[in-house]
């Protein structure tokens, strides 16, 4: 008597077969977008997420389609390849969608997935427009049986989770009141970031969004009170055409005496440099103040040196794996998603307020209910303030 089997790639790339009668249930997933992140999500889901089953991918870019058609893993796992998102949503047996496209289509593709009755994991942010992301939240609320989440990968990083445990549960630094965080990317000489800047919402929306999310986490969802920002153009003067900068600093004051300081950069020479400090009444916790590619240190006539990760993936690769597994678990167990959509909405509101302050030179303010009452939004279509030029 025969039996059916299914394939899964272990972390060493080995194909393994399991009897369908013995294997735990898996979630059939389609991934839309096969750019830098999309390809990595497919790899993570196929190689490191045992209860995920990638059944389809989709892109409308010919070079990505050609790459997918020639990819041996996609052939081995019989992954269907689509050039129309609507067609992928109709793939037989599909249960969930991973949205990994450009920011400007995140919201519409998430809404389409939910309206089709599918669970959706969307790359952050849902949208750079608050009204559009609210539409996604409203549609998700009408389908409570579906799991819909915007990805905030740092919440799934082992070091950041350990820091959160020490801050929020063990209270080792007393009452936390201040965050100093930075997201600084390696200088891009290919022109990618300049092209990307036309649709990413600006440096605070693109770079500081994770730092703002960590602030809400570590400071126990504080209510913003006011924010101000400034920036400069040092390597990419052409970003001025998009009302953006390549280096920026923002300060957010929260009600209750809490403060956050954010440094964003796209021009670091040494590599990807992300760090966070949480100050409390009885101490301070730091995460990744000295970025390292690994634990190798070279001792020579120059002194002691070590390498730094070139980009975010080397630093947060395993966080994306944990994120995928926990989202899949929320589907299989019908539990809550790890990061609620409304958290992402508040993060985006603060990021937009910082961007407004950068462009206008004005202070953005909230009342004690957390309602934005004053911002430089009205100037966002005009020229940037003198600090940013």
UniProtKB/TrEMBL annotation:
One of its GO terms (molecular function) is oxidoreductase activity. It holds the Pfam family GFO_IDH_MocA. The keyword Nucleotide-binding does not apply. It comes from the Eukaryota. Residues 27-145 form the Gfo/Idh/MocA-like oxidoreductase N-terminal domain. Keywords: Oxidoreductase. GO terms for cellular component: cytoplasm. InterPro entries: Gfo/Idh/MocA-like_OxRdtase_N (IPR000683), GFO_IDH_MocA-like_dom (IPR055170), NAD(P)-bd_dom_sf (IPR036291). Belongs to the Gfo/Idh/MocA family. This is Gfo/Idh/MocA-like oxidoreductase N-terminal domain-containing protein.
């Amino acid at each position: 008597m025969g039996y059916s089997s299914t394939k899964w790639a272990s972390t060493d790339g080995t194909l393994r077969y399991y009897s369908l009668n013995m294997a735990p249930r898996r979630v059939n997933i389609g991934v839309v977008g096969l750019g830098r992140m999309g390809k990595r999500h497919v790899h993570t889901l196929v190689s490191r997420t045992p209860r995920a089953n990638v059944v389809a991918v989709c892109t409308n870019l010919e070079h990505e389609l050609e790459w997918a058609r020639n990819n041996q893993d996609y052939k081995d796992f019989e992954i269907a390849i689509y050039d129309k998102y609507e067609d992928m949503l109709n793939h037989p047996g599909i249960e969930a969608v991973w949205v990994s496209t450009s920011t400007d289509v995140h919201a519409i593709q998430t809404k389409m997935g939910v309206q089709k009755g599918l669970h959706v994991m969307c790359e952050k942010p849902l949208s750079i427009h608050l009204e559009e992301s609210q539409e996604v939240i409203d549609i998700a609320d009408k389908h409570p049986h579906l799991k819909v989440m915007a990805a905030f990968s740092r919440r799934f990083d082992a070091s950041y989770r350990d820091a959160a445990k020490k801050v929020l549960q063990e209270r080792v630094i007393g009452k936390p009141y201040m965050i100093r965080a930075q997201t600084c990317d390696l200088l891009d000489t290919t022109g990618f970031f300049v092209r990307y800047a036309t649709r990413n919402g600006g440096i605070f929306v693109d770079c500081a969004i994770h730092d703002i999310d960590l602030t809400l986490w570590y400071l126990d969802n504080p209510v913003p009170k006011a924010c101000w920002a400034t920036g400069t153009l040092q390597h990419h003067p052409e970003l001025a055409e998009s009302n953006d900068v390549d280096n920026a600093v923002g300060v957010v004051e929260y009600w209750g005496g809490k403060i956050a300081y954010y440094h964003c950069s796209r021009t670091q020479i040494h590599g990807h440099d992300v760090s966070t400090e949480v100050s409390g009444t009885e101490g301070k916790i730091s995460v990744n103040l000295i970025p390292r590619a690994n634990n190798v240190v070279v001792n020579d006539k120059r002194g002691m040196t070590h390498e730094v990760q070139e980009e975010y993936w080397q630093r947060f690769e395993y966080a994306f794996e944990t994120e995928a597994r926990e989202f899949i678990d929320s589907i299989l167990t019908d539990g809550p998603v790890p990061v609620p959509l409304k958290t992402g909405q508040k993060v985006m509101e603060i990021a937009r307020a910082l961007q407004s302050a950068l462009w206008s030179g004005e202070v953005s303010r909230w009342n004690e209910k957390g309602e934005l009452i004053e911002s430089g939004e009205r100037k966002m279509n005009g020229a940037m303030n003198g600090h940013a030029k």
